[in-house]
Amino acid sequence: MKNSESSKIRIRSSGVGYFINGIQTLFVGLLRIWTIPIVLMLSVASGFTTYYGLSHFITPWIALVITVAIQSIVVICSLEIAGIHWQANRLRYFSVVCSLLIALGASVSFSYFKFYEISEQDTLHINRLNKIRSDVKTYVDRVLVIKGEVLKQQRAEMEKASLDVSQAYFGTHAQIVDGYKHQVGEGPFWKHYNQIYQEKKQQQTKFEHDFSELDQNIQKLQASINDLDVATNIESSYYAMLEHFQDVQLKINLLSGNIGQSLPEAPLLMTYNQFTADVQPSAAMWSDFSLFAFVCAAMVDFFTVLLSYRLEFTAPGPLTADEENLVFECLRQFTEFRINKNDELEMTIEKSEIERARRYSDWSRMFAVGLLLSRGFLRKIDDKTVEFAPNLYPLIAEKMADKINQLKAESTLARQADDNEQLQN
After folding, report:
1. pTM higher than 0.90 for the full model?
2. How is residue 318 annotated by DSSP?
3. In 3D, which of 263, 265, 266, 219 has the Cα closest to residue 244?
4. Per-residue model confidence as pLDDT tens digits over 209-224
5. Nearest to 299 by CA among 55, 120, 119
6. Same domain, 252 and 169
7. Which one, of 50, 41, 53, 102, lies nearest residue 73 by Cα?
8. Phi/psi of residue 289, each to 5°?
9. Domain span at residue 414?
10. Are 217 and 82 contained in the same domain?
11. Residue 189 belongs to some domain of the structure
């Protein structure tokens, strides 16, 4: 009989369900253990970005101390919130929440600068390149407008000079006196106007040649600006662009003296160091708000708080065998239990009406409650109730199993004693 019962117990304890339950328990335990380094790594990552932004405003070693304090407050308050209820101690609860919100606000605010730099680096390069393009285009467009006006004036003067030469040849020019009118040929009037025509023609040819060189320089400048967007060696490409810009500026200055009028002033382009400078954290980053950078900064701290909260409190040390027996026996003295909204076992720790009437002393069981609260095995909901923490269930289950096995053993011994007594009778 005993052998059959023991074999059934062995089969049940080594069955598929027991194996699956063991694997699941091991997996959950490993996840809880793995959560600790994840929280630490997230805290270090958030601390790095916080320190980066903070170090641009204050002394680096002070920024490091403040960063460590901020990240410590985030993790500690997240763990503490998981173990308290606002109804139990409202002042403590709200002080912890306010501390956490202040630490998160500081962490996210200064981390935002680092993520802003990363996310807006390409945008900043494009904006700087577009600024150069815009300045050069405005300058060149104003020069090309004056160029068109000069060429138009030169063509008008050429046409007038050509007409004067033709009229002087046929003697129909208005400046010819009456005695020389209608005399066809290359007379003194024709030579005079022909000289003017040839001078205008040479001047127009020179202008066209100079403007053609200017157009070529402008094309080279525009090509060098376009190369900045795809060049592998930004430094050499940028200095090549500045060289082409100086060539255009020099050519325009020479043309300004030739046409006898002032041309627009050239823009002052940024230097190479200014063009490639990194983003410096400043309050201007908030005016040019980047939602993506803010979400990234907040996401790191959000996961830190979430995992810390889910990790909850872990008991600082296991209970001794005597403490386990004391806790089990004292908890059995409570009578009001229920499952609360957190799906945890909740019990009322105050005296019942009958206990008050009998002046029952609950010192021993309240001592057990205080011990479990300080060790993290119980969590206080309010002044009257507490709930079991997840790490208390295995302890109680083990004690209940021992108690059941003890009762079974006593029952077996009693049955055997009755059988032996019947046999003797």
Report:
1. no
2. P
3. 219
4. 777 777 888 888 888 8
5. 119
6. yes
7. 102
8. -65, 135
9. 321-424
10. no
11. yes
